[in-house]
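Reminder to self: tokens first, then the designed residues, so the page reads top to bottom the way the pipeline ran.
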């Protein structure tokens, strides 16, 4: 329920170095090695967390549910409607044809097969093996999936908050026996076709997953990861770099504490959503490992000793404590042989890593913590959650599914009764909490509010408990249940994990039982529990009421956690850090100081010393000859229906229709632009003149797989266009998905909301507005890099400017103003919204994209789509002659900004427009920026500087080049590093081998794995931006033929960026003022007072 990225925010985000997490875990401790992943609260989570990863299904704004329909036999009707739509036949025979026969009990490559089963729910044959010598477990999942996934998982429950598992997760990827280079992980990022490469620390486990569609590449990745986890070169220097160390450059300079994880977790703890998420979990489990922070608390990380670190590794990173996962169409013998190769040197070890159970409380408990909420407007900055440790059901899949349905019923959409009660109460600005959390050994539930006054904080618990009490008596309507069930069933069947590999999503699901020594197959099956649950619900109308009673009303294991704004908090934290440093300084005499200086120098030098080329060459990589020279083609048919352009992306989608309706907003009057995203919220949240929003939301949930909206801004791709980029592209896009037989129902809903949306409902509008404002506001701190990129882009191109108006600081400003104007100027706001609606709802502005197979398109989509389009007027009502694009004067003079947020880390950006510098960016630019990102910037800003991440990005359509850092302790120093990139590149000595590796990596980024709905969306975006297949091939050819000379040449372009680029830094007032005192001229302002 907290903010989740939209296209408007994420278009400037590189796909490879930055990935927004939509809830790998509701707790904050799923942290990662390299990719910037934000702990996000998700609205709800079916047993299957598939949904959480799906870009489409779980954005903050995809709401669905149902409306009471009183036919008695709704369930049977509903079951037949959904089930018969599944057109893909079971492929057991097809899978078995391609795999070796095995006998349970026999040993293969030193692995004993202990269990085998075909699971139709995921079209896979599943084999569980145990390694005879060590007891290591292997789940070998065999199917026809080309996106192969491997994972190695250790059970790593920590006993304190020093961050040991997290620092280890980083450290084992810093060189190993076979690959003794500084960071093999980075080499893989540079040079593989991976569709996923990362590592996660959870509260009780550490996972190292990789995925690739290329078999050779896949096994290269597997080999590097296996060597890393079983034979890492762990040294005290690695602990210093990734964990913590004291740093001192010269005699009179201040000593500081640095370390990648140390700064990463400082960033995490600067985000109030993460802080309350962490405490909400920890307070429920004072007796076991879930009571500590596995990611590490910055206050405790410096207490981690080398001895403790080493012991933790020795005890837990052993095959006897390992679970392996293989998934996909790769040969099974290869899997077993590869593992055998690594396991043969180990003997069985008795490892005590079981997660102990938390005993149940007799009474609820209360916890209050202070936090840093900045210094202004503190009266409405309280937040609180009510949390339960639920009754024990971990081995009963039907009960877990029932709890997930209950979770969705309670808070899945804004119309859900618990969520609606909280919103309507006016106690706070935004509903928070992870809902049901099945990741831990004991299941939890969390719900709360942020943006509360002190009094709100005091009455929240009673409100939640009273509401649940009432629901346990009154229950839910049939319509509500039907809608929630449909929503969950749609997700279970669609298995749309977005850009997250399906095999990895299934591994995480399987681990919910497997990690605790229960049957790993249980969470992979959903058909039977689903049928059982439906039967129960049909027979027993009070089943869900009793579920609420059992798990909430009679359950006294409840923790009430409140977070209170403390203006002194940041100072007190800083003082503690200072004291630690001071205590340390006291232990040093003059020689000690000198030693520390030398030690700092030694570490820095070691970090930038290039790897031995001979060792680097050992990292397995593909050759240019291994990859396709042709740019992949996404099929596309362009037709016209009722004078509207309709794109069909003809792909097999298992009976689902994915629908995108794009509305061109380039000609929109300037004063309406910032209304667009808010309008998108209103479409699905406000209700129509015929139907209130509760009923509308229920209908969306009952009939569809979800509807959401997004915004896309860029410039047209016009080859050889004078001045570089073409005109701006700006589109508002409504996106829906539906089982094909229900397509007309999706279109009915769209027609209703587009024509009949009820903008006169001012009070509901106020709720939506306040929630939107709160969501945007809370996304600024943790996504400072996006804010910086957006502000930079706004200075150079009109699409960048528009994007910022609809998603950046300017949008936040617009929302804040609107809140204040709402009562005094309601009539004019109302009329603006109506004008916007009538402008958008016009066929002359629309482009439609449909992804499904041709037969389904002809039979199920074309007739009803035609009917929908006929009803939409072709011409717009008379508009003011000038659009925002004409009105707004490109403000191209250089502007350096410092945006103040409450944070202990910074986000530093610098950028310029290459077209405006007279340079035509091409494939070479992509390669140069990728190379810089994973060599120079990684080393200087992350490894040496202690930031969590840094990267450079160039957008070939807009010509925007930006450097960005993430959770960065520095400002000025990072900017200096950006400026020196030009010199680094000009002098870079790259072997042809290294260049080839980079080429493979860039091609890997270009060919990123996409599910059908994502391919359809890419088709739409390319069409709207004028990107042709020839153009894609041209870029690919440029990348494939890139030479050392090209890269060096790009150095001179960067020189121009250094001298004429603009700066935007996001960080604390103190850090930004310090940067100014070091010679920068940032114009400082608070995010909320532009
Ligand atoms: Zn990390």
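Designed residues (1090 positions):
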């Amino acid at each position: 329920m907290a903010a989740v990225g939209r296209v408007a925010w994420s278009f400037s985000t590189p796909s490879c170095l930055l990935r927004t997490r939509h809830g790998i875990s509701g707790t904050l401790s799923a942290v990662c090695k390299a990719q910037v992943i934000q702990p996000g609260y998700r609205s709800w989570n079916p047993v299957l967390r598939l949904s959480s990863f799906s870009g489409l299904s779980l954005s903050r704004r995809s709401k669905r549910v149902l409306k009471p329909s009183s036919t008695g036999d709704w369930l049977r009707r509903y079951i037949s409607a959904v089930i018969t739509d599944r057109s893909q036949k079971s492929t057991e025979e097809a899978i078995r044809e391609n795999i070796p026969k095995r006998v349970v009990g026999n040993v293969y490559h030193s692995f004993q097969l202990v269990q085998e089963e075909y699971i139709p729910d995921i079209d896979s044959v599943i084999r569980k093996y145990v390694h005879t010598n060590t007891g290591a477990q292997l789940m070998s999942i065999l199917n026809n999936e080309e996106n192969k996934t491997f994972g190695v998982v250790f059970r790593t429950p920590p006993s304190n908050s020093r961050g040991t598992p997290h620092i280890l997760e980083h450290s084992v990827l810093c060189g190993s026996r076979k690959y003794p280079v500084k960071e093999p992980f980075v080499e893989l990022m540079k040079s593989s076709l991976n569709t996923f490469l990362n590592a996660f620390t959870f509260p009780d486990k550490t996972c190292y997953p990789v995925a690739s569609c290329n078999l050779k590449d896949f096994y290269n990745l597997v080999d590097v990861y296996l060597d890393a986890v079983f034979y890492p070169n762990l040294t005290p220097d690695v602990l210093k770099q990734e964990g913590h160390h004291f740093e001192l450059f010269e005699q009179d300079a201040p000593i500081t504490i640095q370390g990648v994880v140390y700064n990463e977790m400082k960033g995490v703890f600067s985000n109030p959503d993460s802080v309350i998420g962490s405490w909400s979990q920890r307070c429920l489990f004072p007796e076991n490992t879930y009571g500590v922070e596995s990611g590490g608390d910055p206050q405790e990380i410096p207490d981690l000793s080398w001895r403790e670190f080493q012991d933790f590794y020795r005890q837990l990173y052993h095959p006897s404590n390992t679970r392996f996962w293989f998934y996909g169409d790769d040969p099974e013998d290869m899997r077993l042989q590869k593992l055998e190769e690594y396991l043969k040197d180990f003997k069985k070890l008795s490892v005590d890593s079981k997660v102990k159970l938390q005993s149940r409380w007799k009474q609820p408990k209360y916890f209050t913590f202070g936090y840093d909420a900045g210094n202004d407007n503190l009266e409405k900055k309280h937040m609180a959650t009510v949390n339960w440790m639920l009754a024990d059901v971990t081995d009963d899949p039907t009960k877990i599914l029932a709890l997930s349905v209950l979770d969705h019923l309670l808070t899945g959409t804004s119309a859900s009764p618990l969520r609606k009660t909280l919103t309507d109460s006016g106690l706070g600005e935004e509903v928070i909490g992870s809902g049901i959390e099945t990741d831990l050994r004991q299941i939890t539930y969390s719900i709360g509010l942020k943006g509360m006054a002190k009094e709100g904080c005091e009455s929240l618990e009673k409100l939640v408990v009273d509401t649940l009490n009432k629901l346990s008596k009154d229950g839910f309507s049939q319509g509500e249940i039907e809608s929630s069930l449909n929503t969950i069933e749609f997700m279970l069947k669609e298995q749309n994990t977005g850009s997250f590999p399906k095999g990895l999503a299934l591994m995480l699901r399987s681990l919910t039982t497997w990690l605790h020594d229960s049957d790993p197959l249980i969470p992979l099956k959903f058909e039977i529990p689903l049928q059982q649950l439906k039967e129960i619900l049909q027979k027993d109308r009070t089943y869900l009421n009793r579920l609420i009673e059992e798990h909430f009303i009679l359950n006294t294991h409840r923790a009430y956690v409140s977070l209170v704004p403390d203006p002194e908090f940041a100072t007190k934290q800083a003082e503690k850090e200072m004291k630690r440093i001071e205590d340390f300084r006291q232990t040093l005499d003059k020689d000690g100081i000198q030693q520390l200086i030398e030690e700092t120098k030694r570490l820095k030098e070691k970090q930038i010393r290039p790897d031995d080329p001979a060792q680097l060459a050992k990292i397995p990589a593909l050759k240019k000859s291994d990859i396709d020279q042709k740019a992949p083609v996404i099929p596309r048919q362009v037709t016209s229906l009722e004078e509207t352009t309709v794109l069909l992306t003809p792909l097999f989608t298992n009976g689902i229709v994915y629908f995108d309706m794009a509305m061109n907003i380039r000609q929109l009057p300037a004063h309406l632009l910032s209304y667009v995203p808010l309008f998108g919220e209103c479409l699905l949240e406000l209700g129509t003149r015929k139907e209130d929003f509760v009923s509308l939301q229920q209908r969306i949930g009952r009939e569809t797989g979800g509807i959401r909206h997004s915004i896309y801004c860029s410039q047209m791709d016009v080859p050889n266009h004078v001045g570089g980029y073409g005109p701006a592209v700006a589109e508002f896009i409504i996106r829906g998905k539906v089982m094909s037989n229900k397509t007309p129902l999706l279109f009915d809903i769209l027609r209703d909301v587009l024509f009949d949306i009820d903008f006169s409902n001012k009070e509901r509008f106020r709720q939506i507005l306040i929630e939107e404002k709160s969501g945007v506001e809370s996304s600024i701190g943790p996504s400072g890099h996006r804010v910086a990129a957006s502000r930079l882009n706004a200075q150079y191109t009109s699409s960048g400017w528009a994007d910022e108006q609809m998603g950046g600081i300017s949008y936040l400003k617009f929302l804040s103003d609107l809140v204040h104007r709402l009562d005094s100027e309601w009539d004019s706001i109302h009329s603006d919204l109506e004008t916007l609606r009538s402008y958008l709802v016009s066929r002359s502005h629309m482009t439609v994209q449909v992804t499904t197979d041709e037969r389904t398109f002809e039979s199920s989509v074309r007739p009803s789509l035609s009917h929908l389009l006929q009803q939409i007027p072709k011409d717009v009502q008379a508009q003011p002659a000038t659009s925002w694009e004409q009105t707004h004067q490109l403000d191209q003079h250089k502007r350096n900004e410092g945006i103040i947020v409450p944070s202990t880390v910074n986000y530093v950006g610098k950028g310029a427009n290459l077209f405006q510098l007279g340079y035509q960016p091409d494939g070479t630019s992509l390669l140069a920026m990728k190379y810089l990102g994973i060599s120079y910037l990684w080393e200087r800003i992350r490894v040496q500087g202690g930031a969590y991440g840094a990267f450079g990005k160039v957008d070939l359509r807009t010509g925007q080049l930006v450097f960005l850092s993430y959770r960065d302790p520095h400002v000025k120093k990072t900017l200096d590093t950006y400026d020196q990139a030009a010199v680094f590149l000009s002098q870079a000595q790259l072997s042809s081998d290294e260049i080839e590796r980079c080429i493979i990596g860039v091609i890997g980024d270009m060919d990123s794995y996409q599910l059908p709905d994502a391919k359809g969306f890419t088709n739409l975006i390319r069409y709207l931006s004028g990107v042709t297949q020839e153009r894609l091939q041209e870029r690919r050819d440029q990348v494939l033929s890139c030479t050392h000379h090209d890269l060096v040449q790009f150095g001179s372009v960067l020189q121009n960026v250094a001298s004429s680029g603009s700066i935007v830094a996001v960080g604390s007032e103190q850090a930004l003022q310090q940067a100014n005192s070091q010679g920068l001229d940032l114009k400082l302002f608070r995010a909320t007072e532009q």
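The chain has 39 helices and 29 strands.
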